[in-house]
Design a protein that fits this description.
There is one protein chain. The protein is an alpha/beta fold and about 1200 residues long. It has 43 helices and 24 strands. Helix 32 crosses helix 33. It starts with 5 loop residues before the first helix and ends with a helix. This is AAA+ ATPase domain-containing protein. Belongs to the CbxX/CfxQ family. It comes from Ramalina farinacea.
Length: about 1200
């Protein structure tokens, strides 16, 4: 006996059972098709016979109709005769009663009088509007024709045809039926025909509402589920499916159940004879969070093919989401060839849905003012219909929500009327219940509107809100007249500084919209850009859609909305793109349509400049949905309004303040106004918070507490009286500063103007300059003066702080095109309420980018944002600042005031040196003394020596005045410290230390120096220019070789320096060591200048030769490129020419650079030659004067010349220079 595998036997039995089941399904389907064909043939035969009968009856009916019409006419004549006999009394009373009831309908629904609304009133106010005929339905006409003339009969089609709307779905059902009927007549098999379908549409479409206003029995199902059921019944009834079993699931559930769950459901359908597998929200199978959905979908696609003729798969979902579903696999559309579009309901269909819902909910007993098909229900349907076409339009669900709001309004009305003692009719919708209160009357009873009007300031915003509500009122009237509405949007942009009440007004604005019936919820949802922006691709869109969906019926406030700018500019002005922020804006543009009737209000809040910049960079659709020209602009509060806010906040917080304290607070607010992003009402909170702290400190120090806490002026501002003591401030500020008398007088003049104008109750800002030029050499106190000006202007109440922002031109100038402007603006914004000090400002006139920065400054400082809100100072040398003023015609008028800083004369330098010594003398430790008597009690000879040396220093081009005086003292003090312990007197600053320090600086600066371009004239040396020493006998002989200025430098002989023939030791007797050391340094400096001149001539010659060689090489290279361009093919000619032009331009730039280098060398050489010619003239005069009988060479030293022996000195003035 053969043994068989049990597993194989089980598999064979399973396959045999499956084969038998499939055979039975095929046989059942074939039997149904044959029965359908027989029935169809019988019906068609019977239909032909019935048509003949109908034709015969038609003529009989026409004859009977004529007889009935004649009999009715006779009856009408008899009735008129009888009414004439009774008298015309009943009709007028009926009309009078109607007029009376109409007047009641126009009154306030909350009014209570003797005519309470009872059943009689309801009967009179319900105008008998007959059920309007549904819109023409081609599908219904076609199906009625088939039933009437072809004997067609199908319960599923009957139920579908009776549903409201869905014309495309009905046409598709009829098309499928026609195809099946045709195939049967043609004797074609339909086993392999695909009937898979996709039901697409917005939510709420296809709700099972029937034309006779009775809901389909499966009323709890969604519209698409109902149609899917009817589709299965329909296919089964026409023989396309063997069974009508219906299995329903969702994409999410199917993905969670996996392939095993899908197999189980399919087996259940097959075991029940076949049917429909309906997957609602099928797009969930391909969503990112459904990990198993894609595998299930791939499995189902194969089963769709395998089970053709046994199971029909029906998908359902929203149009937009199903697009990504169909894109998952290219084979999906071919497997679901029947696309059933659920179109949004039109206004007539929405009205019928509303009536059906009212009749169903209230069992046909609810009445409506103007009738259920009257004007007011029509307005309800039209308002909902305005959202038609938007993604997610609710259709019947939106009507359900509208009916809920109607019921809420009715309940509130009934509650008020019952409380007042009247007896309202509970089964009646008034005009106000249906369409809400009239906007104008609603505003009168709206607490939010009253609070908005009570807000301090914001008059412009109040006017804009009132204008918007006037438009809403006008549209309300047009609705009643059944005219098109004026297009408007509830969405707005709120522009203004912080603390101006944008968020508070947004909440009141939303509540007002609710009170007049334009929003279903008064909640205000406040979000920031960070709430929308995601960190991965797709997250920004998801976040934005979720926030917008949750804000339906509410006011969505997006604070600091300019943070959503995805194409902003960085610090330097270079553009960049943030795809995550861009996705947020694009989603807002797609989701927010800004159409009338939209049950959502979106408000974008932000600062004016940043918001305008954002709208220029983002999706252009944003400006169409949120037009800036209709924005609500929140202006900064005036001083008077801030005073009122201060009083209000003091009262709310249980504090009081003296009048002087309030004045100090207003003055402090005025200074804070100059800062960027002035906080307005928020600044009041800041001041009060700090005042509370100072108040508490004052009480802690023994102050007497009052019953009511009262702020004193010192609680508000510790320096509240600064404006009253400005007369002495300036001189105190500049105490110890040498040579500042003119500046002090100028600032005191400003203070006098301010004081007098305030006395006249005038604004002094218009008379006081805010832009200054500081002209003078280095080290004359320009930066120090800028800091003191900040203090003066702060005390006068013009600045928020006395801070000085010191910048150089490089901090304003960009490195590439488009960077300079934003960089300069950012620096100006940083300096608002402060002093902006631009050192070496003359560099702003050099180069294209620097001039761009200067142009930006000229443009900005006259704009309201910056004008009179910061002090701007341009500092530099006289000639350079004057040259800068010529670079832009607008500079002179924008910088009308100049402060001139003179170089320190020698005696001022000595005075400043003594001042610095005294300052350090006071700061010495108690055990150590600093003796500076050598300078304080200097004799005449020592004073003359100091004047001579400081005169030499002041003539040097790199002398930095007060700055170098401080450097000198540091060097002297350092040398003095080295003597500590060697002298019993402590630290002693000797004459030798002072003179040696000055001589060292003279020598060092002489070696570094060159021809001065910024020399400030100093005082002549005076008496110390004459030397009274008798010349000693000559010990050395020196001859001078004449030189001529080389022009051009190619003349070798002309560039020879003066030749010195010296003995071994030319020092004259009686010459001090100090003079001799200085003379030796000056000799070295003269020799260094000669060597520098030689190198300059050699470098110029080398540069000329290099330039000539470079030009020859350039000509050769350009010739090669030009020849190559002629030889290449035509298609390469353009590219070759382009390369040739680029090379030519590059070589031209290099040539200009070389030429500029050579010219710079020529200028230096010519300047040196000019100096040499002057030197020759001086040497000639000195020889002719015969002062030095020994005939030594004369060495340039300070303000004159000293002979090489050191015994004789002649000043420049004596030489006539």
């Amino acid at each position: 006996m053969n043994k068989t595998c049990k597993k194989c036997d089980d598999e064979d039995r399973r396959q045999e059972a499956t084969r038998k089941r499939d055979l039975e399904l095929d046989a059942a389907r074939q039997r149904k098709q044959e029965a359908y064909a027989r029935e169809l043939a019988r019906i068609q035969d019977e239909a032909a016979r019935q048509r003949q009968i109908l034709k015969d009856r038609s003529e009989e009916q026409q004859r009977e109709t004529v007889l009935r019409q004649q009999a009715q006419d006779l009856e009408d004549l008899k009735n008129r005769v009888q009414r004439g006999a009774a008298g015309p009394t009943s009709q007028p009373s009926r009309q009078a009663h109607q007029v009376k009831q109409t007047s009641v309908s126009d009154s306030d629904p909350d009014r209570t009088d003797s005519h309470d609304r009872g059943q009689d009133e309801v009967d009179d106010r319900i105008v008998d509007h007959p059920d309007p005929a549904p819109g023409k339905s081609h599908a219904k006409e076609d199906w009625d024709h088939q039933k009437k003339f072809e004997g067609a009969n199908n319960d599923a089609l009957d139920k579908l045809i009776e549903m409201i709307g869905l014309e495309d779905v009905k046409d598709r059902f009829l098309s499928i039926k026609a195809r099946i009927d045709t195939a049967i007549r043609q004797n074609i098999a339909m086993e392999d025909e695909r009937f898979g379908a996709a039901l697409l549409g917005n939510p709420g479409t296809g709700k099972p509402f029937t034309q006779n206003y009775e809901s389909y029995s499966s009323s709890e199902l969604s519209g698409k589920t109902t149609v899917a059921r009817l589709y299965g019944q329909f296919l089964s009834s026409i023989g396309a499916l063997p069974g009508s079993y219906f299995s329903e699931t969702t994409g999410s559930r199917l993905g969670n159940d996996g392939i095993a769950g899908a197999k189980k459901q399919i087996e259940t359908i097959l075991e029940n004879g076949g049917g429909v597998f309906f997957i609602d929200e099928a797009y969930q199978l391909t969503s990112g969070h459904n990990l198993g959905g894609a595998q299930v979908l791939d499995f189902l696609l194969a089963e769709v093919e395998n089970l053709t003729g046994k199971v029909v798969f029906v998908l359902a979902g929203y149009n937009k989401q199903m697009e990504s579903f169909f894109a998952h696999n290219p084979g999906i559309p071919s497997r679901f060839p029947h696309e059933l579009q659920f179109q949004d309901y039109n206004d007539d269909e929405l009205l019928r849905i509303l009536v059906q819902k009212i009749n169903k909910k209230y069992k046909g007993s609810m009445g409506c003012e103007s009738g259920v098909y009257g004007l007011y229900p029509k307005i309800v349907a039209r308002r909902i219909g305005r959202g038609r076409g938007r993604d997610g339009f609710g259709n019947a669900r939106a009507m359900e929500n509208a009916l809920s709001r109607i019921a809420d309004r009715q309940a509130n009305r009934l509650r008020k009327q019952r409380r007042s003692g009247s007896k309202p009719n509970d089964l009646f919708f008034t005009k106000e219940d249906l369409i809400g209160p009239e906007p104008s009357s609603a505003l009168q009873h709206c607490s939010a509107w009253v609070r908005l009007q009570d807000l301090i300031g914001l008059q412009t915003v109040k006017d804009n809100v009132k204008a918007l509500f006037d438009t809403i009122q006008y549209n309300y009237t047009r609705e009643l007249d059944e005219q098109p509405l004026v297009e408007y949007s509830l969405n707005r942009v709120f522009l203004g500084s912080p603390g101006t009440g944008k968020t508070s007004v947004a909440k009141l604005y939303g509540q007002i919209l609710v009170d007049i019936g334009l929003l279903s919820s008064g909640e205000v949802v406040v979000k920031n850009p960070s709430d929308f922006v995601g960190s991965v691709l797709g997250e920004s869109e998801k976040n934005t859609k979720g926030i917008l969906a949750s804000a339906l019926g509410k006011v969505l406030v997006i604070d600091e909305a300019y943070g959503l700018s995805g194409g902003g500019t960085g610090e330097g002005g270079g553009s960049h793109s943030d795809i995550y922020k861009t996705a947020v804006v694009d989603t807002i543009v797609a989701e927010v349509q800004s159409t009338p009737g939209e049950d959502r209000c979106v408000l974008l809040l932000g600062y004016k400049d940043q918001m305008e910049a954002m709208f220029q960079k983002v999706n252009p659709g944003l400006s169409r949905r949120f037009p800036l020209d209709s924005a609500f602009v929140f202006e900064d509060f005036t001083d008077e309004e801030l005073r009122k806010i201060l009083d209000l906040k003091l009262k709310q917080q249980g504090f009081n303040a003296t009048d002087r304290a309030k004045k100090a607070a207003v003055e402090k607010l005025g200074r804070a106004r100059n800062r960027p992003h002035f906080g307005n009402a928020g600044e009041v909170d800041i001041i009060l918070n700090s005042a509370k702290l100072r108040y508490q400190k004052r009480l802690s120090k023994g102050g007497k507490a009052r019953k009511t806490a009262t702020f004193e002026p010192q609680d508000i501002d510790e320096e509240f009286d600064r404006g009253e003591r400005t007369e002495t401030n300036v001189r105190v500020l500049f105490n110890g500063v040498v040579g500042c008398e003119n500046i002090v007088a100028q600032l005191e003049g400003y203070q006098e103007v301010v004081r007098n104008m305030k006395r006249l109750d005038m604004d002094p800002r218009e008379q006081i300059p805010f832009n200054f030029l500081f002209r003078g050499p280095p080290g004359t106190g320009k930066t120090t003066t800028a800091r003191k000006i900040g203090k003066v202007f702060y005390d006068m109440g013009f600045l928020a702080t006395a801070e000085v922002i010191e910048v150089s031109s490089s901090e304003l100038v960009g490195q590439y095109i488009g960077q300079t402007g934003p960089k300069t603006q950012k620096m100006l914004e940083k300096a608002l309420g402060k002093v902006l000090f631009v050192d070496e400002a003359y560099r702003l006139g050099e180069g294209h980018f620097a001039k761009e920065a200067m142009d930006e400054i000229v443009d900005c400082i006259t704009k309201p944002k910056f004008a009179q809100k910061l002090v701007m100072i341009l500092a530099g040398y006289d000639a350079d600042i004057n040259r800068l003023m010529t670079t832009n015609p607008g500079l002179t008028s924008r910088f009308p005031e100049a402060m001139v800083f003179e170089g320190l004369a020698p005696d001022r330098c000595i005075a400043l040196l003594i001042e610095k010594m005294r300052k350090d003398q006071k700061n010495m430790p108690t055990k150590t003394t600093l003796d500076i008597s050598a300078l304080e009690l200097a004799d005449k000879e020592f004073s003359l020596q100091l004047l001579s040396r400081f005169s030499q220093l002041s003539d040097l081009p790199n002398w930095a005045n007060a700055r170098d005086v401080e450097t000198l003292w540091k060097a002297m003090f350092s040398k003095t410290l080295k003597t500590l312990g060697k002298s019993p007197q402590g630290l002693v600053v000797t004459k030798d230390i002072i003179l040696t320090g000055i001589d060292a600086m003279v020598a060092e600066r002489t070696l570094r120096g060159g021809p001065s371009t910024h020399k400030i004239p100093s005082r002549p040396p005076g008496a110390f220019a004459q030397q009274t020493q008798e010349p000693p006998p000559p010990t050395k002989q020196q001859t001078i070789a004449k030189t001529t200025t080389p022009d051009p430098p190619k003349d070798k002989e002309s560039t020879e320096p003066p030749q010195h023939t010296e003995a071994k030791d030319p020092r004259d007797t009686g010459v001090s060591d100090e003079i001799w050391q200085a003379l030796e340094r000056d000799k070295a400096a003269a020799e260094a200048r000669e060597e520098q001149y030689k190198r300059l001539v050699e470098h110029e010659k080398a540069a000329r030769e290099a330039d000539a060689r470079a030009q020859q090489e350039t000509i050769a290279k350009l010739a090669q490129l030009e020849e190559k361009a002629r030889q290449v093919a035509n298609e390469e000619a353009i590219e070759a020419k382009r390369r040739h032009e680029e090379a030519r331009l590059q070589h031209e730039k290099e040539r200009q650079a070389r030429e500029e280098q050579v010219n710079a060398m020529i200028r230096k050489r010519e300047a040196e030659e000019q100096r040499r010619r002057q030197e020759q003239v001086a040497q000639k005069k000195l020889r002719e004067m015969g002062v030095c009988v020994a005939g030594w060479q004369w060495i340039k030293q300070g303000g004159g010349y000293r002979c090489a022996g050191g015994a004789h000195f002649v000043s420049d003035a004596q030489l006539g220079f």
